[in-house]
């Protein structure tokens, strides 16, 4: 049995099942986490390993880690001096999110500022793990539509999709005007797309799918 799974049919078992929520929220499997195992997945994974998660890139984004850690320490110090209570768990999550957002998007979205981003990202995470009748009983997919599950997923996807469109346009404008100082994931992916250095068409949807899956673990 182990030989059948690990060697004979390894490519079959290496692929993820196509689920309802990831299919809608992650651009129909155009990301590296939920894409079916195959040629596209290998090529996108190569982009992530060589261009986004290499040692050079990790060192490149050190400034974000240092600055956010310093800001966290300052908040703790301020709370101690004023003898005010502080939620360390929430602060650590916020700091981690800010580091990720600055590295990936070039800016941070503090929940303290009332940004929609944090709550919507948390909702995305909840929905990816939520129960779907269609996933368990394919003949009952109509129930997901009837109970508003599909519409809710599409609403979340639409908010992120519009956000990414605006973000990409802002990065393109900044690049044309020479205002890009510290490159983030968006800049790197846009450069890869513009250079046409890949042996497949790297579309805007592929780019947004990678951004989505990079941000997925952060809430």
UniProtKB/TrEMBL annotation:
<dbReference type="GO" id="GO:0016705">
    <property type="term" value="F:oxidoreductase activity, acting on paired donors, with incorporation or reduction of molecular oxygen"/>
</dbReference>
<protein>
    <recommendedName>
        <fullName>Cytochrome P450</fullName>
    </recommendedName>
</protein>
<dbReference type="InterPro" id="IPR001128">
    <property type="entry name" value="Cyt_P450"/>
</dbReference>
<dbReference type="InterPro" id="IPR036396">
    <property type="entry name" value="Cyt_P450_sf"/>
</dbReference>
<dbReference type="Pfam" id="PF00067">
    <property type="entry name" value="p450"/>
</dbReference>
<dbReference type="GO" id="GO:0005506">
    <property type="term" value="F:iron ion binding"/>
</dbReference>
<comment type="similarity">
    <text>Belongs to the cytochrome P450 family.</text>
</comment>
<dbReference type="InterPro" id="IPR002401">
    <property type="entry name" value="Cyt_P450_E_grp-I"/>
</dbReference>
<dbReference type="GO" id="GO:0004497">
    <property type="term" value="F:monooxygenase activity"/>
</dbReference>
<keyword id="KW-0408">Iron</keyword>
<keyword id="KW-0479">Metal-binding</keyword>
<dbReference type="GO" id="GO:0020037">
    <property type="term" value="F:heme binding"/>
</dbReference>
